[in-house]
Amino acid sequence: MYRLTAELARAWSPSRQSYSPFGLPVTRAVAVLDYVPLKLFALIIALGHRTQAVFALFKTQGATWPLPGPSWLLIAVGGKLELSLGGPAIYDKRKAVRAKIGGRIAPSAIHLAQIHKLMAWRICVWLLLQSCILVVVHQGI
After folding, report:
1. Long-range contact set of residues 113-121: C-beta below 8 Å, sequence gap at least 24
2. Which of 9, 39, 77, 138 has its Cα between 20 and 30 A from that of 54?
3. Which pTM was predicted?
4. Per-residue pLDDT tens for 26-71?
5. 100-114 pLDDT, tens per residue?
């Protein structure tokens, strides 16, 4: 059910006027389901180099993005690598104004490799934590 809801939220993006009646409730449902996992993963990303700067960005920029879970994730990646993420976007030939979050550097192709490296190690930590939690819950330690 989660996978279906997430796919529908991507397919029926409420940013497009024609999909808004379907996309808005589905996007809100995914936001509720993803709230805690996205915040925890953003905290894992924030750990290490520039942790204090990322936490300061959480406080100042967290409320400027419409959905709280994805905002923390974007702020964590942008703040960690000092990248400026977000900003205006064009949907159906209409310009949507969105806040810029993260750092001050405009992203380029080299930053994709840096983000990939950052995410790969953080995903390993995420999987190890989940595995440990599942072992504790299953074994009752």
Report:
1. 114/81, 115/77, 115/81, 118/45, 118/77, 118/80, 118/81, 119/45, 119/77
2. 9
3. 0.82
4. 999 999 999 999 999 999 999 999 999 999 999 999 888 888 778 9
5. 998 899 999 999 999
Joined together, the tokens standing for residue 134 give: 């599942």
The tokens describing 22, both together, are 């379907």
- 50 torsion bin: left (phi>0), alpha (psi -120 to 50), beta (else): left
Instruction: Tally the residues of the chain.
Output: 141
Whole-angstrom distance, CA of residue 125 vs CA of residue 116: 14
The rounded distance, in Å, linking the Cα atoms of 27 and 69 is 12
- CA 54, 55, 59, 64 torsion: positive or negative? positive
